[in-house]
Design goal:
It is built from ten helices and 16 strands. By secondary structure, the chain is α+β, with helices and mostly antiparallel strands. It folds into two domains: 208 residues, Beta-lactamase, CATH 3.40.710; 99 residues, Methane Monooxygenase Hydroxylase, Chain G, domain 1, CATH 1.20.58. Helix 1 runs antiparallel to helix 10 and helix 2 crosses helix 6.
Length: 375
């Protein structure tokens, strides 16, 4: 009798979860149709366990290839958190300090000419409070180097460093160069060895180090039509052949070039959700993880490559990051207290924005939360 009762319970749980998953897939499917979204990958963590993963729609429109859970995306600005995590490792090893003069770290003068006495620190760079901007571009460090660009002063705003927030991609491409200068390793190799491999996840920055068959094609939506963005996965082999550590780093794009699946990104997210530890491996100290999650600007609530928001799920304060580039939109957010987190990535959508998030991203977060976490 006991075996029959246990079998009945198992069957009930299976049928309940199956119905639950069908409901999620129906609701997200309806949202995909409404927002003209090409493909969407999601992963949900609850109580430190992966409780759901699913791929919706197309990986490639041209040959109608369906998206799968193992497909990888260029996740754009969520990549910044990998650079900041690497910096925390180096700070813990006493190889640098968050309050170091960033110019000393990167190898050339970093000073806002309007505030020449104010030291611009690594902490300011990682929190977008450096007063540096992207007006001269961010795929070449020469733009802000006084000895290389006569217009270097244009790379700075008229705000005092450490006071005001301004999102800046150049900050993190320079941070990647610092990691190379300190470690003597190419940026992508460092991240793989010290973050990806210990967590047992697949991903990276260099195109040729990854399986091209797994790349989800990204589609930009312009003039009411989608077009593929081949630049998202440009191998840049010629530039890599003459790579100089601490100088050529923007080729790999620490600011936005990580390629990874939604499921593996969820494992990385779990590490931050647990203040530096996942899969039994500690990547950064608890103190370092909390520093990354502590807002240093208001109202942006941006810490060290992680931000805090209450605009994604009503009544919930979440920590994480978004990304957008080449038509892709990504979001990785978690609650370190309630121990849940959600990753949502789309490779193309015509959806409008609500509260700073593409509708398909926000709707998917809420569908997943209501069906898997709130219950």
């Amino acid at each position: 009798m006991k075996k029959l009762a246990l079998s009945a319970i198992i069957l009930f749980l299976y049928l309940s979860s199956h119905a639950q998953f069908e409901k999620i897939e129906r609701e997200i499917g309806e949202s995909l149709t409404k927002t003209e979204t090409i493909g969407l990958a999601v992963a949900v963590i609850k109580n430190n366990q992966l409780v759901y993963q699913h791929a919706f729609g197309k990986k490639n429109v041209e040959d109608s290839t369906p998206l799968s859970n193992s497909d990888i995306f260029r996740i754009a600005s969520i990549s910044k958190s990998f650079a900041a995590t690497s910096m925390m490792q180096l700070a813990e090893a006493k190889k640098l300090s968050l309050d170091d003069d960033f110019g000393n770290l990167v190898g050339f003068k970093i000073r806002n000419p309007k505030f020449p006495e104010t030291v611009i620190t690594l902490r300011m760079v990682l929190s977008h409070t450096s007063s540096i901007n992207d007006s001269q571009g961010y795929f070449n460090l020469d733009v802000i180097n006084p000895s290389k660009n006569p217009n270097w002063e244009k790379c700075y705003t008229d705000k005092q460093p450490g006071i005001s927030y301004l999102y800046c991609n150049l900050n993190f491409n320079m941070a990647g160069a610092v990691i190379e200068r300190i470690t003597g390793q190419r940026y992508d190799s460092y991240v793989k060895q010290h973050i990806l491999a210990p967590l047992n996840v697949y991903g990276g920055y260099c195109i040729d180090s990854l399986d091209a068959k797994r790349f989800a094609t990204l589609y930009e939506y312009e003039n009411k039509a989608f077009k593929p963005s081949p630049a998202a996965y440009a191998p840049r082999r010629e530039e890599l052949s003459t790579y100089q550590l601490g100088y050529s780093t923007p080729i790999l794009s620490p600011t936005g070039g990580m390629k990874i699946s939604a499921t593996d990104l969820a494992t990385y997210m779990t590490m931050h959700m647990n203040y530096g530890k996942a899969n039994g491996v500690r990547i950064i100290a608890k103190k370092s993880a909390k520093q990354m999650q502590t807002p240093l600007s208001s109202p942006e609530n941006y810490g060290l490559a992680l931000l805090t928001t209450n605009k994604l799920i009503s009544g919930k304060t979440l920590v994480g990051h978004t990304g957008s580039a080449y038509g892709l939109y990504s979001a990785m957010f978690f609650d370190p207290k309630e121990k849940f987190g959600i990753v949502v990535i789309t490779n193309g959508t015509s959806a409008k924005e609500t509260d700073g998030y593409k509708a398909i991203i926000k709707e998917s977060f809420n569908i997943l939360y209501q069906n898997l976490i709130a219950k």
